[in-house]
Structure formats: C-alpha cells, structure tokens
Specification:
Layout: E1 11-12, E2 15-16, E3 19-21, E4 32-37, H1 41-58, E5 61-66, H2 69-78, E6 87-91, H3 92-101, E7 129-139, E8 163-166, H4 171-183, H5 192-201, E9 205-209, H6 212-220, E10 226-230, H7 231-239, E11 245-247, E12 254-262, H8 269-279, H9 282-289, H10 306-311, H11 316-319, E13 323-324, H12 327-344
Parallel strand pairs: 4-5, 8-9, 8-10, 12-13
Antiparallel strand pairs: 1-2, 3-5, 6-12, 7-10, 7-11, 7-12
Length: about 350
C-alpha cells in the first residue's frame, strides 16, 4: 500500500477522509498521482479497472481520495497552489462552480487520442465527460408487483410512506425537482411547479436521503420500496443480489454528465492527463459498462449491451438525446432551492 504524502493528508467535516491506495506497487513521490473519486460504484471501477490500466501504461502509483463533488470544489478553493489531489471528478453543477473558482485547468484536447471519439455533448473544454447518470424509477419487485412507468406513479396512494427521495444538495435531488418543474410548466430557472408537486407527494415519502450512498442503503435495507435513483447505482445493487429494478420514465430519463478534470497546480499534470485519457479509452469504458457496474460510456466506439441497451439507450447516438438540463441556469437558483427544500420539504 502506498501511503499518502504529507500534503495529501487532510480532514473533511471533522472526520478523517477515507484514502485508499489503488495499487500496491511502490513508487517514488515523482511517480505518485492522487485522484478524487466518489464513494460506491465509482470507487469500485476506479480501483478495479482504471487503476490497473493506468499503472500498466505509466508505471506510476495512484492513490484514491473519496470525496463528494461539492467538497472537492471547496477543498480546492481553500488550498490554491497546493491542491490535495491532481484529478477531480465532478458532476455538471460542481464543474461550473470549479470553473468559476478558477481551480481547474483546461483539458489539452489537442494531445488526446480519444477526446474526439466522445459524443459531442461529452466534450467539455475543462475535462471530458466520462459517463452520465440516467435518472429513473427504482423499485422493489418483491413488494411492488406492477412496475412504475412514469413520475406520476410516485403519487399512487398505494405507495404511501414507501417512496424515497434525496435532498437537493445532491445532483440527483436537484435534477429530479428540475424535471418535475419542467414537466409541469416550469424550467431550470422556475422551480415553483416542482416545489408545489413535491409538497403534494409528501404523504407518500418515507425517507429523504442526504446523498446517493445513503439513498442506496435505504433501498438495500428495504426501508423504501420506490425511489428516484440513478440507473447504474441500481444495477450495481441488483448485481449484488438486492431486490431492486430500474425503469426509464415514459417522458424520458433526465441525465447529468460526470467529468474528470486536471486540477490547477497539480503536482503531476502529465500523469493526471494520462489517468483521464485512460478513462475515456474504448477498452476501459467497455469494461466499466459491463455487469455489475453498468457505467454508461461516452466513447462512441463502445458497443452498448446488456442492461444499458435494455433500459437506457440502444446506441451511442441515443445517449446524446437523454434529457440534459441546463446546469448554468440551475446553479443560479440552486442555493435558494436547497434552503427552501430544507425549510419546506419535511417528513
């Protein structure tokens, strides 16, 4: 196991960060890359698939720091000039925040062998989209005999106290209320119809999770039977034997992009580039897209198969046509929306 060097050791929220070495091969400081990752599925695929590929290509060691996106941006803003990691993984909203804070480098796409293999919506100048999270209806088939088909099904009286949501501090929660607002005449800038709808849903809501990990735990422990959730998180749980399935809503699946970024001031920007390049290769994305993780690929050379084809999209072109919200507009109202949600949407 490769220990973290001093500048990489820090504390988040009063608790020690979980820092796990991805590879056991000894390496000197100059060959050390520290990357941020999310808990759960991302942690697993980065450790099991991307890290071995990266190590074989560069002979460098990589250490993983598990951290939510908003915490990554806050940490980078607080440690300008001495960032605690070289690669950030961010969803669309936090990416925009990070750009505004000036803590990212533009991605050197001209050097990339794979950037132009990505679908056009996934070529971000600040770092490629490595996947997308498709949002739909998760349910326990053992307890819910007729699968839900639309967002309106969440209001079914039979689901009283059985529906799970996430708070708006998560991208999932924010994307869901934006989609509700959109379908009921609002928009990214006008969430009022979404809030009105959520208030009427409260009798059916059994739990509101703070983040995706806690949300998945509710499903795994059968504390909720129907939930708004991401496709690949649910498929991962299903692969582990959890009684759960996922349905794309009839109105389409909202989705957001997840990006990898080279951090400004990174100690090894060259290795950071190679790490991100590895993630967008067809071979790495194809491996991640297989069971049990089903990480949706952005490289058009990857042939879609399995649950992705059955439930999300049949071709790379169809993936580009998922419902992508405008996170520039969302970010303008997000802080106020989070405060309002925490004040008004209570069980």
């Amino acid at each position: 196991m490769t220990p973290s060097i001093d500048r990489r050791t820090f504390v988040r929220g009063g608790a020690a960060l979980a820092i796990a070495a991805l590879t056991p091969v000894p390496a000197s400081a100059k060959d050390q890359l520290v990357v941020a990752t999310f808990p759960g599925t991302w942690n697993e695929v980065h450790r099991e698939i991307l890290a071995p590929y990266f190590q074989k290509k560069t002979n460098a060691d990589v250490t993983q720091t598990i951290m939510l996106a908003t915490d990554q941006v806050a940490k980078l803003a607080a440690t300008r000039g001495q960032p605690p990691f070289d690669v950030a993984i961010l969803d669309e909203g936090p990416t925009l925040d990070a750009v505004k804070q000036g803590v990212l480098e533009k991605y050197p796409a001209a050097k990339s062998a794979h950037f132009n293999e990505l679908g056009p919506p996934f070529r971000n100048e600040w770092g490629p989209a490595i996947s997308m999270q498709a949002i739909g209806l998760a349910y326990n088939p053992k307890k819910v005999k007729t699968a839900p088909r639309s967002w309106d099904d969440l209001w079914n009286p039979a689901y009283k106290g059985r529906v799970g949501l996430t708070a708006l501090n998560s991208s999932l929660g924010m994307a869901f209320i934006v989609e509700l607002a959109r379908l009921k005449g609002g928009s990214e800038s006008n969430l009022e119809p979404g809030f009105l709808a959520l208030r009427t849903l409260l009798p059916n809501v059994g739990a509101i999770s703070a983040n995706l990990g806690a949300h998945s735990a509710l499903i795994q422990q059968e504390q909720v039977d129907v939930a708004v959730h991401n496709f690949n998180f649910i498929e991962t749980l299903k692969g582990k034997g959890v009684e759960v399935d996922w349905v794309k809503p009839e109105t389409g699946a909202p989705a957001w992009r997840t990006n990898l970024h080279i951090v400004k001031g990174a100690q090894r920007p060259d290795l950071a580039f190679e790490y991100i390049e590895g993630h967008i290769t067809p071979e790495v994305q194809a491996a991640m897209a297989k069971a049990p993780h089903f990480v949706i690929p952005t490289n058009r050379k990857v042939v879609l198969s399995g649950a992705i084809v059955d439930k999300v999209a049949r071709t790379p072109d169809e993936l580009t046509k998922l419902v992508f919200h405008d996170w520039t507009k969302i970010n303008e109202v997000r802080a106020a929306a989070i405060e309002r949600f925490n004040r008004e949407i209570k069980l």
